[in-house]
Design brief:
The complex is a heterotrimer of chains A (290), B (436) and C (276). Chain A is built from 13 helices and two strands, in the order H-E-E-H-H-H-H-H-H-H-H-H-H-H-H. Chain A is mainly α. In chain B, strand 4 and strand 5 form a beta hairpin. The longest helix of chain B is centred in the C-terminal third of the chain and has 18 residues. The chains are: A mainly alpha (290), B alpha+beta (436), C mainly alpha (276). Chain B: InterPro entries: Bact_solute-bd_prot1, SBP.
Chain lengths: 290, 436, 276
């Protein structure tokens, strides 16, 4: 199949995409790399000077950096676990016959279509606000003290918001995978006396493994750069409780307008993202036969 | 592909061409009520100047600041009129990013602008931005609750009176909180309030050698007073409350006192929005007998970027939007209470305005009490009351605000927050080269 | 007897499913309801669910203040335009990955995906400078270019996983009959891959519609899409929940309706190779 002719054709057809992405990646990356070695504040033009690795030194020794690293991992990990677990639950539910299944499915996928900024604004102001929010009203109605979500459990609250946005995606992919499962296998297992739990662990879960890998990969890509939700709800605080790497880079480049420091942060984030990418690739290699 | 490209090109040309006749001004502005009103009334301007078309970019304050700063610093040239605050004007003027406003017209009456506001927008005797509305901060309180508790609010209260009264008025069972203050982190959020408060305690951001002062006693007093009164008498969730959250609390009758921007007065006294409209009293922001009150000074102002090729038309617009005639126009169309406050002396001499705006007098006194050139009790190397007019301040102020917000949320003690503020400010100032 | 048991079971499942569905949908419903309240009612506590004074004033005011249709149209042009161009570039690439795989195919694919992990804030200034020099600031073409590049990896990957399900022999047969590469892709591959292409198209329109960093930072007045429209209603001084809700409803509704109507097409190809 792989004749010399088709090899050449393959290279030809591949090149537009590769060239475009290479340009998109390399040109800004090269500029960013260059800026990262400069003292370069947007608000003080004309004072740029070469300062070597000072920007990196400051970014990496920033006490907020390790907090941000931890928060990034917690955010990605937390959302992944919740969406996959929730997604499997919802997929199993939607796979069963019940009245109004089509409508319930529409309700469940709806959050995926909402802009992140909008959902963050709605959750923060109209639901989680401890005085005027709906949750507070419910708590008061039940005679409880309203819980101050964004101050007392800031990271968990953000994980909750992001989970709400990505749950539909996980559900849809897992549901499609579930529906491709041969029902005869399940019936046969039932005949053999396997209980519901056994069937779930030994037949359904292995069947969903590939789908879970896909969900993990795609969501990780998007979750690493979660930003709007944090900017709108907590501004990275209180303290550094919800600062992730992306937010830290933002604070450097667009609050401080420290392009040098922000660029160094950007490069660090790129390195971290590539570590994650390598890790994911290994995982994919095992579960997806690409 | 080629045809598709040329089609796209033609479409773009047609799109741009539609406005090629007249001169088009791009105006970037904040989404606050007064600016929205200006946008609505702008048809009066375009009617008088048919050769000028206006394009509005209205954004939330922080997004707007980030957009226009990026644009002006990279000379992107997207805007002809910018809405900027007292913080940006001196920094941008120094970079020669703004055009001097020298074509405002003979009738503009620069002398009528309030001196403390005008001085912040002037460099070497030249005006670089024209104030659209100005604000300070003051105490808004519930007269009915004070009366019930047998308390009398003096016109110029002290911090100890405010703290006592707040504790006495608190009734958490009935969701009544003695005092609502900003807690949400940000240089323009909690730090605007806390820096101004610190001034009245004799604290300052930096000494004359740009060394951060968070390890000094006055800052400790400031923060412990703030945290103490908020813990005893503040609403839940205060660490995420900014202007709007507190406004909503006050308007729904949940705060006995609120210290915030003077423009809030026109919201809380508006019966269409506020449940407590007829019960609000006003007082100057508190002090500690050290000669500085804890009120800030801010003016949203209009300026023209040096890169704009439509400078004359832009100044024509600015002159209209910040003129006395504009104030009359708003009064005629929307009533005196909706006139943008805090920019012109003549407005405060106007009997009709004073009648429609019971808070006019205290707003004026508050604005006059703030002195951005000498904001603190001790000498400082910077200007600005609730900010430090250096480019690094936005980042530093926000990071310090995070630490104080965390202290308010109970995640660290006052001492830890101050230590962390001192450490991070020292770090940033060293990096920026202020501290050798 | 058995019938009754399954019916009772079905009833229980129905109740659970509807409860969960409504809980998940609730924030959106609440936003829509709030958009019909006055500002004072929007912050009233306890909040009223349906028994409030319904009003359309928020919608009239939003429309008066900003040109919704301009923003809407920009969103349409940007999301559809970037997706179509993305497809044009991605189809050939995915073809070669799926049917002429080499040793490096997997690496190339992973590298493409990894470009999506860069934090956009880190490269905003370089991109802004480039856009300024090419005169692309505040232009729809500029935004189409950026969004095409951002979503290209996802498009390539989705198409690749879908193409792989198609037996290579069919394409080979076409080639034997003398079809050129162009004809092979256009007339043999694409018709077979319609479901995959449809869901790729839909998913990317959704992603592009909701992209809020680049669209906000590279636009001003002419090219600003609905994400910028939202930014002009969030957190002004004063009460804003009701107006923000109205603006949010207007920004979200088109894409939500599109998603609902096309959910079958969206789901059919949304497998990323997870289904054998």
């Amino acid at each position: 199949m792989a004749t010399a002719h088709s090899r050449a054709a393959a290279r030809l057809t591949m090149s537009p995409a590769v060239v475009l992405l290479l340009g998109w990646m390399l040109i800004p990356l090269a500029m960013t790399l260059y800026f990262s070695f400069l003292r370069y504040n947007l608000l003080m033009p004309g004072q740029e000077e070469w300062i070597g690795v000072l920007n990196y030194q400051y970014f990496l020794t920033d006490p907020a950096f390790f907090a941000a690293l931890g928060n990034t991992l917690a955010l990605v990990g937390g959302v992944l676990v919740l969406t996959i677990a929730g997604g499997i639950g919802l997929a199993l539910l939607l796979d069963r016959p019940f009245w109004g299944r089509g409508i319930v499915r529409l309700l469940i996928i709806a959050p995926f279509f909402v802009m992140p900024t909008v959902s963050a604004l709605v959750w923060k102001n109209m639901l989680m606000n401890p005085v005027n929010g709906l949750f507070a009203a419910i708590a008061k109605g039940l005679g409880l003290q309203p819980f101050d979500f964004l101050a007392e459990a800031p990271l968990s609250s953000i994980i909750l918001i992001v989970t709400w946005q990505w749950l539909p995606f996980a559900t849809l992919i897992l549901l499609t995978a579930l529906q491709s499962l041969d029902s005869e296998r399940l019936e046969a297992a039932e005949m053999d006396g396997a209980g519901a739990v056994d069937r779930f662990i030994h037949i359904i879960l292995p069947h969903l493994a590939r789908a879970m890998t896909v969900v993990t990969l795609i969501q990780t890509i998007f979750l690493l750069s979660v930003f709007a939700e944090i900017l709108v709800t907590t501004n990275g605080g209180p303290g550094t409780a919800t600062t992730n790497i992306t937010y830290l880079v933002y604070a450097q480049s667009l609050l401080q307008f420290d392009v040098g420091g922000g660029s160094a942060g950007g490069i660090v984030a790129v390195v971290l993202a590539n570590i994650v990418a390598v890790f994911l690739m290994r995982m994919i290699g095992r579960n997806l036969d690409i | 592909m080629k045809r598709a490209l040329s089609l796209i090109g033609a479409a773009v040309a047609a799109f741009l061409g539609s406005s090629a006749q007249a001169e088009t001004l791009s105006i970037a502005t904040v989404n606050n009520g007064d600016m929205i009103r200006m946008q609505k009334l702008a048809e009066h301007f375009t009617k008088a100047h048919p050769d000028i078309t206006l394009n509005w970019v209205t954004l939330e304050e922080n997004v707007l600041r980030q957009r226009i700063t990026t644009d002006i610093a990279t000379k992107g040239g997207q805007y002809d009129v910018l809405t900027i605050g007292t913080y940006e004007v001196p920094i941008w003027t120094k970079q020669k990013w703004l055009k001097p406003l020298d074509k405002l017209g003979a009738n503009y009456d620069v002398e009528d602008l309030l001196p403390s506001i005008r001085s912040g927008l002037t460099t070497d005797g030249t005006l670089y931005a024209a104030p659209f509305y100005g604000e300070s901060s003051m105490v808004m309180y519930r007269k009915d609750l004070f009366e019930k508790a047998g308390l009398t609010m003096p016109e110029a209260p002290t911090w100890s009176f405010i703290a006592d009264a707040a504790r006495k008025l608190t009734d958490k069972q009935n969701e009544l909180y003695g005092i609502c203050l900003r807690g949400k982190a940000g240089w323009g959020e909690n730090m605007a309030f806390l820096s101004a408060m610190a001034n009245s305690f004799g604290a300052r951001w930096f000494d004359m050698n740009w060394k951060p002062q968070f390890n000094t006693d006055p800052w400790k007093q400031t923060l412990t007073t703030y945290l103490g009164v908020m813990k005893d008498a503040g609403p839940p969730g205060a660490s995420s409350n900014g202007f709007n959250e507190n406004l909503a609390l006050f308007q729904t009758g949940k705060c006995a006192m609120w210290i915030d921007a003077t423009v809030a007065a026109s919201f809380v006294s508006n019966p269409a929005q506020s449940k407590v409209a007829d019960k609000v009293g006003y007082a100057l922001a508190p002090d500690n007998g050290l000669g500085k009150r804890s009120n800030w000074l801010w003016a949203w102002s209009l300026a023209v970027p040096a890169s704009s090729k439509k400078g004359d038309a832009a100044q024509t617009f600015i002159s209209w939007a910040t003129s006395k005639e504009y104030l009359d126009l708003v009064a005629k169309e929307e009533g005196w209470a909706n006139v943008p406050p805090g920019t012109r002396s003549s407005l405060y001499a106007n009997a009709e305005y004073r009648k429609a705006a019971p808070f006019a007098d205290l707003t004026l006194k508050s604005i006059q009490a703030a002195d951005p050139q000498h904001p603190t009790v001790q000498e400082v190397p910077y200007t600005g009351v609730q900010f430090v007019a250096i480019p690094e301040f936005q980042g530093i102020g926000t990071a310090v605000g995070q630490a104080f917000s965390a202290a308010l949320a109970g995640q660290m003690t006052a001492d830890q927050a101050l230590q962390s503020a001192q450490a991070l400010t020292t770090r940033e100032m060293t990096k920026a080269g202020y501290i050798k | 007897m058995a019938r009754a048991a399954t019916n009772r079971q079905k009833l229980v499942v129905t109740l659970i499913a509807w409860t969960i569905g409504i809980v998940i949908f609730f924030p959106i419903l609440w936003t829509a309801l709030t958009s019909f309240k006055t500002e004072a009612e929007a912050i009233a506590s306890p909040p009223s669910f349906l028994a409030f004074h319904w009003t359309l004033e928020n919608y009239t005011e939003v429309q008066q203040r900003s040109d919704y249709f301009l923003h809407f149209w920009n969103s349409v042009v940007i999301s559809v335009g970037s997706t179509l161009i993305g497809l044009m570039v991605a189809v050939p690439a995915a073809w070669s990955m799926a049917f002429v795989p080499g040793k490096r195919t997997r690496d190339v694919l992973m590298w493409m995906l990894s470009t999506k992990m860069l934090p956009p804030v880190g490269v905003l200034i370089p991109i802004y400078l480039l856009f300024r020099d090419f005169g692309l600031l505040d232009s729809r073409i500029g935004l189409v270019i950026v969004l095409t590049l951002i979503n290209l990896p996802i498009i390539v990957w989705m198409l690749f996983t879908y193409f792989r399900e198609i037996p290579g022999e069919i394409l080979e047969a076409a080639r034997m009959d003398g079809a050129g590469l162009r004809d092979e892709i256009l007339f043999v591959l694409l018709p077979m891959a319609v479901p995959g292409i449809a869901s790729t198209l839909l998913l990317n329109i959704i992603l592009a519609w909701n992209e809020a960093f680049w669209t906000l930072n590279l636009s001003a007045s002419q090219s600003a899409p609905l994400t910028a429209f939202i930014a002009s209603y969030s957190s002004p001084e004063g009460l804003f929940y009701a107006k923000l809700s109205a603006a949010s409803t207007m920004a979200v509704a088109p894409i939500l309706v599109l998603g609902w109507f096309s959910q079958k097409q969206l789901v059919r190809g949304l497998t990323f190779g997870a289904v054998k």
